[in-house]
Design brief:
- The protein has about 600 residues and is α+β, with helices and mostly antiparallel strands.
- The chain folds into 6 domains: about 1-25 and about 35-130, no CATH class; about 220-260, no CATH class; about 270-325; about 330-450, no CATH class; about 450-490, no CATH class; about 495-585, no CATH class.
- Helices cover about 50% and strands about 15% of the residues.
- It contains 18 helices and 14 strands.
- The chain has helices spanning about 1-10, 25-30, 45-55, 65-75, 85-105, 110-115, 130-200, 220-235, 275-290, 295-305, 315-325, 345-360, 415-420, 425-435, 465-475, 495-520, 535-545, 570-580; strands at about 20, 40-45, 120-125, 250, 260, 330, 340, 370-375, 385-390, 405-410, 440, 445, 550-555, 560-565.
- It has a 5-stranded antiparallel beta sheet with strand order 6-7-10-9-8.
- Helix 3 crosses helix 5 (about 85-105) and helix 9 crosses helix 11.
- It is elongated and about 155 Å long.
- The termini are far apart.
């Protein structure tokens, strides 16, 4: 504001403000002013009044008319009117407003003649700023500045104290929060201790409400005494702090018979310490429990029933189960299929080690191992692949279930790509053993050092390397790379399995050509006249051979036909009947050109 006023006070006007000590009688009379009270009269040109009005509404909006007047007369006459003088300020405002309104719409000479006029304003002695008044105001300003400085210092000191107080409040709040957490923790611990006290304190609601000791049988009495001995030992745990050890507790029942609870360390029977006959009995019980899905709790209840005294204890059965579980490490097979597998090398080492314990001569020569794989169709939609191993040196057990040891069970179809992905770990382990030619059995290596009498002869059979090379080039009917690096002369084809596979392919081919024949015959017919006559004839021909057989179309999720057909799975005996009787019945079932 001060800078704008100083800049505006340098404005040059054609006429200046005139201070006149002669008072106009009309002016004194108009304002009802005592001539003795009047100090002088100001003659202000209309030009300046109009300019003041415009400046007041633009750049000097925060200034009063008295301040604008003082800015001009102070430079000319060293006079100053009190800024708090409302009369002079109001008078100047009225004159400026009137002059501004009169100047509106006037131009040229009329405007110049108007702006050349002057307006007279009488100033009283009391409205002037004297030297004493100025000095008084300056002293007041100095006092106020001193007070302001003092207040500023106090404010800074208070601000510092406020920050320190805020820091103390924050620290106190942190301590309060930590104390609250500790209090809540102590409350929880107190609640736990209170619950423990409530449990161990003698209360009526915890009294035993079952049958008394004499009302139960001998078996239950022993069980109650054992439970009571456990509770007594827990209740008298503090006796050891006195240097005393609990040895026995003597109790008397209602009949007066004494019962002594002994707390001497007596080891319970362990499964590994039992005799061989007892172990076999427990293993047979465990087999029945696993076969019929009997749980441990159910077996425990069974031992408590009348007549259950002769059964092996439930804890021994559990120990037997744990020992059996430690013998094997079962893991999931790679890929997305459902299946489980054992470590082939560990299982083979375990099998050979057990056989060498019964037959010491087994380790003198090479150990012949057979790896078998077969698929089994359990249900119409479920197939399983079973991979097993057996030791051919023991000829009497090779074909029995005792001599075959399952390595992997996989839910899925027999497919090269699937087997390559699912059984990758098993096949890599077998190939590694084949390349090494030995296996570690209880810290010893069992090697294959056998050389045939004709080892010097040149063999003309196809080797595993030749098969791999032919598979890469697609030659000599070698479609895939062999999964196992086993010599071809050591591979035995399962003739029954091969026959079943061939008959499956033939059956699918017969069904496919019957469907094609029906489609060809149904093309010129109306939908209502279409039928599967040739497919039904084929199914009837199979049924006439004494085999239950049917063909159906699979359904989609919307219960509509998918165009994919399936047929009844047949056993080996059924396929033998088909091979014997079906060829002579195919005359009317297949296209004549195929006969």
């Amino acid at each position: 504001m001060a800078n704008a006023l100083d800049t505006y006070s340098n404005t040059k006007f054609k006429r200046k403000i005139v201070v006149d000590s002669e008072h106009c009688p009309n002016l004194v009379k108009r304002y009802d002013v005592d001539p003795e009270q009047s100090c002088f009269t100001l003659h202000i040109p209309f030009e300046q009044l109009n300019s003041w009005h415009n400046a007041k509404h633009t750049t000097l909006a925060d200034c009063t008319y008295v301040q604008i007047l003082n800015a001009f007369i102070d430079k000319q006459y060293s006079l100053k009117i009190q800024e708090s003088c409302s009369r002079v300020n109001e008078c100047l405002r009225i004159h400026c407003t009137k002059v501004s309104k009169q100047a509106i719409g006037k131009h040229g000479g009329a405007r110049q003649s108007l702006l050349a006029k002057v307006k007279s304003v009488a100033i009283r002695h009391s409205e002037l700023s004297t030297v004493a008044l100025v000095n008084d105001l300056q002293s007041q300003v100095l006092q106020l500045e001193s007070v302001n400085a003092t207040i500023t210092r106090d404010n800074k000191a208070l601000d510092i104290k406020c920050k320190e107080a805020s820091a103390l409040v924050s620290q106190s709040q942190i301590k309060i929060d930590k104390a609250t957490i500790d209090i809540n923790k102590l409350k929880r611990e107190n609640d736990k201790l209170y619950n423990i006290i409530e449990k161990i304190s003698p209360q009526r609601k915890f009294e035993y409400k079952g049958k008394s000791f004499l009302e139960v049988g001998k078996r239950q009495q022993d069980r109650k005494l054992q439970t009571l001995a456990t509770r007594v030992k827990q209740a008298l745990w503090f006796s050891e702090s006195f240097g005393l050890k609990l040895n026995s507790v003597k109790m008397i029942d209602d009949s007066g018979k004494a019962h002594c609870l002994s707390f001497e360390e007596k080891g319970l029977k362990n499964y590994t310490e039992l005799a061989t006959d007892e172990k076999q009995d427990i293993q047979q019980v465990l087999y029945i429990m696993d076969k019929f899905c009997i749980g441990e709790a159910a077996y425990h209840e069974l031992t408590c029933c009348p007549g259950g005294e002769t059964l092996p204890r439930s804890y021994l059965v559990k120990q037997c189960k744990d020992n059996l579980n430690k013998l094997f490490y079962i893991e999931r097979i790679p890929g997305e299929a459902n299946g489980a597998a054992l470590n082939f090398e560990d299982e083979l080492s375990h099998v050979i080690g057990n056989l060498m314990e019964t037959d010491s001569k087994l380790g003198e020569g090479p150990v012949k191992v057979k790896v078998s794989g077969d698929g089994a169709k359990m249900t119409r939609l479920t197939n399983f692949i079973v991979i097993s191993l057996s030791v051919l040196n023991l000829e009497e057990t090779v074909m029995s279930s005792k001599g075959n040891h399952t390595v992997a069970v996989i839910k899925g179809d027999e497919d090269y790509n699937l087997l390559k992905a699912w059984c990758s770990k098993i096949f890599s382990c077998i190939n590694r053993l084949v390349r090494a030619g030995k296996i570690n059995i209880k810290g010893k290596d069992v090697c294959d050092m056998l050389s045939h009498l004709d080892y010097w002869e040149t063999r003309h059979g196809r080797s595993i390397e030749d098969i791999k090379e032919c598979a890469l080039k697609g030659q000599f009917s070698c479609q895939f790379q062999p999964l196992l690096d086993i010599k071809l002369e050591n591979v035995v084809i399962d003739e029954l399995h091969l026959m079943l596979r061939i008959t499956d392919v033939v059956t699918k081919s017969l069904i496919g050509q019957a469907l094609e024949w029906d489609i060809k015959d149904n093309l010129p017919r109306a939908p209502k006249d279409r039928s599967n006559r040739h497919l039904m004839d084929l199914a009837n021909s199979v049924n006439q051979c004494g085999v239950s057989f049917n063909v159906w179309e699979k359904k989609n999720a919307d219960v509509k036909g998918s165009g994919i057909y399936d047929f009844t799975s047949m056993m080996g005996s059924d396929k033998k009947l088909l091979l014997k009787h079906l060829p002579e019945k195919l005359k009317d079932c297949i296209v004549p050109t195929l006969l």
